[in-house]
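Deliverable D4.2, example record:
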Amino acid sequence: MKTNLLLLISIVLFLVSCKKDDKNLPEIPLVANGVYVLNEGLLSWGNASLSLLDLDSKLVYNNVFERMNDAPLGDVAQSIHIRNSLAYIVVNNSGRIYIIDKNTYLYHGEISGLTSPREICFVSDEKAYISDLFSKSITIFDPKDLNIAGSIKLNHTSESMITLNNKIYVLSWSFGKQLFVIDAEIDQVIDSVETGLQPNSMVVDKNEMLWVLSDGGFDGMPDGPQLPRLQCIDPISLNIVKDFTFPDYDWMTKKLSINQAGDSLFFISGGIYAMSIEDDVLPENPLIDNGNRTFYGLGIQPGTSTIYATDAINYVQPGLLYRFSPQGNLIDSFTVGIVPGDIEFQY
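Output generated by the structure prediction step:
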């Protein structure tokens, strides 16, 4: 108990000192070539934050949202999505989405009253979907006026979403094992296919095949744990084209990503692994060993294929953002916020 009390005091002192230091920081410039890092913060502490790396100056600006809008971002920032001139920031435990101008970082609007929002998938300039961890429906909203326009009943929770050929593909992650297909014209589920247990992330390759990564769940859940899986699924027939099963339960797979060419997959399982979409076996060794790092977020920069990975360290202190070459060599690193998760590239 004494150790926990000391840790709590340390966190409070750190947060107070950060708040004071913000006033003495340089102004946040307009960044034409940058990378957003969304920091979850500590659950129920309301200290989520947004960091911005200026790729030209190699400077990081932390607490961007709060500094520019004089308001906290909220509790557990889950994902960030850029559409046209706006950045949509999904704040999971606060049940809302903040929208800022991606160039000025100033508040543009918000969507509130959500249950536990996770990801956004844009159907068009007039329609977008919001997945939800606890609600068994997907929320529909209009990006133009930010009004909620309806919902789609799944009877399952929802996580990662991808749009392809006017269909929206949705994963049911928490306790789930399904990929749902939604017809975006009528906003209805029209099909589904069973995946591995707890599919957490999904990408589309150059052949317009879906790749789904499942973590296998955990001890004590009704159907788990199961071995993690990586599956390639034909989005038209929903046939499973390739089905890789990881060798043991310790893989803890997450954050499936793909390069711009659509021919190389990346994911976190302790270290960072890479494989070709043509491979017939899973990689045995990581491209980037984790060492003493706690890799948490992952993104592949379009154009350069530079690998960006975040390190949550101990999930209490400010984390790190690493940049690696496509070959896995460390380029540099930057201090960001607490529990850095989602990465979005700004151009």
